[in-house]
Design a protein that fits this description.
globular; 430 residues
């Protein structure tokens, strides 16, 4: 997706362009105006979902990843230098760890080393995603589309929706704090030396001098928090659309009219509502399909390595060091899969909900029946949801499949883990 700030004349001339991925906005008086005259950067402060993303944007700024359309060239250049430096150090750390884990293989610490490499990959994917979605104004465009197409259910689900948004915000803050606590644990363990069994000896010499160990811990903190922010952007937007789909299905259940003509008009309104809902969901898929694919592909091995570490620990200190990372990996796996799968499940209920509404089908009316079948055709969109780069949709059967594969791989890893007795026998041999 390419976004350009244009003049009003260029905007009018661009409406006839065939390239749907090239979107232009008007830059005027520090505002980004769309074709309908709305300020794209202005968010509805009465909506808890918008407040949630304002909070998350503050954490994005705290991590030095915030981009604004009208930032000065100096500010943008400094941010790019900062991100480039952190990215280069992360890549160096990942290559360093991989080299020493292969050529100085240690069965006790290799799992932790591979896990750190995966976390670095996740952080780089999340950083690229956050940078791209801000520079393309992806989230403001989504909220602009949602503002015009939001379904009005008379406030029926407002309380439950607001509670769900608050729960997501609290979980985000808890996970952010867990990442901070995890870094403190690792820093203390490295300084006091009581976790040498699970930390590779080369860890202290990543930057040649042990005194520079704090750089390594900063990278761990940075990687965990960037991953946390991007994951919750993914989860929260999917949760917003879940409640929109739920409101749409409630309208289908309540569909009723006193005359066939009135029923035809209401069904036509439902077709229009579903068209708007379809547009919002596909906008969401456009934002997340590549990120969702990469993050799920990386979070599965990360969870496997973490569970293997926990189940092979033989000391309380090693177990305590693993617990924060275990919680983050499990939560990341559930959040990256279950939230979009719940959205897909709710969207899949629409056709069955419509078919179970007797008011639409009985008594039979030819005009009502014809427009109702048109609505059924709109609801028969099997590809509606968040996809993994277009290969597959994130659904509950997919979660069951990946979980089964993970458990099989975990059993395989545990079966071939090194035994203490075998190590002692090998050490005693001449």
């Amino acid at each position: 997706m390419m976004v350009t700030l244009a003049s009003p004349e260029e905007l009018l001339s661009s409406r006839n362009e065939d390239d749907e991925d090239h979107v232009k906005f008007v830059s005027k008086d520090g505002k980004v105006l769309t074709e309908d005259g709305c300020n794209l950067l202005e968010m509805d402060m009465d909506d808890p979902a918008c407040k949630q993303f304002i909070l998350i944007s503050r954490f994005i700024s705290f991590m030095g990843l915030c981009y604004k359309p009208f930032s000065s060239k100096l500010s943008t250049t400094l941010r790019l230098i900062y991100q480039g430096s952190v990215t280069a150090i992360c890549l160096y750390t990942g290559v360093f760890d991989f080299y020493h884990s292969v050529y100085l293989f240690d069965p006790k610490s290799s799992g932790r080393t591979y896990q750190w490499i995966v976390i670095i990959i996740q952080a780089l994917v999340s950083q690229i995603f956050l940078t791209r979605v801000q520079m393309n104004l992806g989230i403001p465009r989504f909220f602009h589309t949602l503002k015009h197409f939001r379904i009005d259910d008379g406030g029926y689900y407002d309380k439950l929706r607001n509670r769900s948004i608050s729960n997501h915000t609290r979980r985000f803050l808890v996970l952010f704090g867990t990442g901070f606590i995890s870094v403190i644990f690792y820093f203390t363990a490295a300084k006091l030396g009581f976790a040498t069994a699970m930390i590779h000896p080369s860890f202290l010499y990543t930057f040649i001098y042990p005194e520079l160990l704090w750089i390594r811990h900063f990278l761990i903190f940075y990687s965990l928090q960037v991953w946390t922010i991007a994951l919750h952007v993914y989860m929260c937007l999917a949760n917003i659309m879940y409640w929109e789909a739920k409101k749409f299905n409630r309208k289908l259940r309540a569909l009723n009219a006193s005359t066939p003509g009135e029923m035809v008009k209401k069904v036509e309104e439902m077709i229009l509502l579903h068209t708007h809902l379809n547009k919002c969901v596909r906008e969401l898929d456009r934002i997340f399909k590549i990120y969702g694919f990469l993050i799920i592909c990386s979070i599965i091995p990360s969870t496997l390595f973490t569970l293997t570490l926990v189940l092979t620990r033989d000391s309380l200190s090693g177990l305590m060091l693993c617990i924060p990372t275990v919680l983050m990996c499990l939560y990341g796996y559930i959040g990256a899969t279950l939230t979009p799968a719940t959205l897909h499940e709710e969207l899949s209920k629409s056709k069955a909900t419509l078919c179970m509404n007797n008011n639409l089908w009985v008594p039979f009316d030819e005009k009502v029946n014809k427009v109702a079948h048109t609505l059924v055709m709109h609801l028969e969109q099997a590809d509606l949801g968040i996809s993994l780069w277009g290969f597959a949709l994130v659904t509950k059967p997919m979660i069951l499949t990946t979980f089964s594969v993970m458990m099989t791989c975990l059993a395989f890893f545990l079966e071939f883990r090194p035994k203490e007795t075998a190590q002692k026998q090998n050490a005693s041999m001449p």
